[in-house]
Amino acid sequence: MAVTKKSTKPSAPKKRTTRVSFDFSAWQKNFKKSWQKNPSLYTLGTTFIVVIIALGLLFWFQRSLFLAGNINGRLITTPQFYSKLAKSSGEEVFQSIVQDTLIKQEAAKKGVSVSEKEIKAKLKELEDRLGGPEALKSALAQNNTAITDLREQIVTQVLAEKLLADKIKVTEAEVQKYIKENKQAAVGLTKKQVTQTLRSQKLSQEFGIWFEEIKKKAKIITYF
Questions:
Q1: How many domains does the structure of the chain reveal?
Q2: 87-96: Cβ within 8 A, 24+ apart
Q3: What's the pTM value of the predicted model, to 2 decimals?
Q4: N or C: which end of the chain has fewer CB within 10 A?
Q5: How far apart are CA 37 and CA 111, in angstroms?
Q6: Is residue 101 part of a domain?
């Protein structure tokens, strides 16, 4: 009887798992040696990395400096937005800035200023006219105007009033004449309110003439 030998296959060698370790101290020594050999190159590289990180953070947290919006995945850049804005209403906005700037410059020349007390007094007048603090807040919200913007408008207005003080004086005779000629409109108004109304009318008339004169003398250049 023949005996069959079983063929035995050699077993596959076991795979050795090697751990990858990072020797930080060795890396630090190598980096130090490399830096000592060429310090300017490594300084430049480090500066470049820091600048890239700083720009990335700036872009992320101050995106409005670069982007105005996103429409279905299409980015609208801030320069695009302001270019359109300048073409549509840039002249109007610029002229408003010109007016505020020239008034403040003229006031500075003549030593005219506005105190915090005067600003608060004007705010109180507005509140009383509209029906209280809440009514003023509501009016500001409807007009999309911040209280800081309103304060700036008040400063400009008061400066203009002071600069034109001699031309917008209201006499007692003018008050009495207004009450006599506008009996219906003057019903319920105090003399102080009538005086303020007449001052506002005179300011509107005189301001245009005065402003055109100082504007002609000013050097104004536009770049849009």
A1: 2
A2: 90/224, 94/222, 94/224
A3: 0.64
A4: N
A5: 63
A6: no
pLDDT for 50-87, tens place per residue? Answer: 777 766 666 566 556 667 777 778 878 888 888 888 88
Region of residue 190 (phi > 0: left; psi between -120 and 50: alpha; otherwise: beta): beta
| 70 in a structural domain | no
- Give whole-number Cα distances, 96 to 79, 92, 93, 103, 160, in Å: 21, 6, 5, 11, 14
* Element containing residue 74 per DSSP (H, E): strand 74-77
Maximum distance among all Cα pairs of the chain, rounded to whole angstroms: 149
Q: Which pair of tokens denotes residue 6?
A: 């079983």
pLDDT tens digit sequence for 15-51? 555 555 556 576 666 666 666 666 666 666 667 777 7
For residue 222, being part of any structural domain is answered with: yes
Residues of the domain holding 197: 164-224
